[in-house]
Amino acid sequence: MLKLLVGPMKAEKTGELIRLVKRASIGNKNIVVLSPQIDERTVGEVIESRNGSKVKAFRVQSSDLIESFINEPVDIVFIDEVHMWDEGLVREICKLTDSGIDVVCSGLDMNYMSAPFEIVSRLLALADEVVKLTSVCEECGSDKGRRTARYINGKPASFNSPEILVDGTNTSVVYKTFCNRCYRKIGMFGLGGYPMKNVEIPESEAVSLNY
Ligand SMILES: [Zn+2]
């Protein structure tokens, strides 16, 4: 069984993953929690949500090392931040589920350009269960935040910036989340939020949100 918890940033995806880890622990399940080494926000062998809850986790450098963490019989493998893993993760997850191990993953479904993360779109196709979490829209305050926007030095990032850029490690990088309507209203990334790769956003179109 493959279950995915997806959504924009600030949707408490990791918080929900941690809640499920704690429930599995209460149920005496044998579990393994894995986190990509690339996520620099969390230091040490833990994963931590934005609300401050945390659980122990192995930090893993690449997906081909996952097998080395499954030494004993395991009921559930939890994998955080799936969009940050290398593409071999899909194969490793299939190996786990084919052997009868449940896998629960969390991650972003779309990048800052509103394009799907390749690896996550493949997992979405394979998943038995998908939970789409939302954030609070930072423009209208609704509970329908679905899009993540990246700001660099206070301005919407151009599409030339890398797909993965962890916030918190670089103070000039800030992420905000919006509902579909506000994302379109702000008009940062083109009509409907469709990706327009390698397009610089003219200064005149970089709408200030007065934050
Ligand atoms: Zn909104």
Q: How would you portray this structure in words?
A:
Mean pLDDT is 84; it is low at 190-211. The chain has helices spanning 13-26, 89-98, 118-126, 180-186; strands at residues 2-7, 31-36, 46-48, 54-56, 58-60, 76-79, 102-108, 129-132, 147-152, 155-156, 173-178. The chain is α/β, with parallel strands linked by helices. It has 2 domains: 2-132, P-loop containing nucleotide triphosphate hydrolases (Rossmann fold, 3-Layer(aba) Sandwich), CATH 3.40.50.300; 147-205, no CATH class. The chain has a 6-stranded parallel sheet, sandwiched between helices. The protein has a 3-stranded antiparallel sheet with strand order 10-9-11. The structure holds zinc ion. Zinc ion is lined by residues 137, 139-140, 142, 178-179, 181-182. Zinc ion binds at residues 137, 139-140, 142, 178-179, 181-182.
Write the layout of secondary structure elements.
Layout: E1 2-7, H1 13-26, E2 31-36, E3 46-48, E4 54-56, E5 58-60, E6 76-79, H2 89-98, E7 102-108, H3 118-126, E8 129-132, E9 147-152, E10 155-156, E11 173-178, H4 180-186
Parallel strand pairs: 1-7, 1-8, 2-5, 2-6, 6-7
Antiparallel strand pairs: 3-4, 9-10, 9-11
The structure holds zinc ion (ZN).
Zinc ion binds at residues 137, 139-140, 142, 178-179, 181-182.
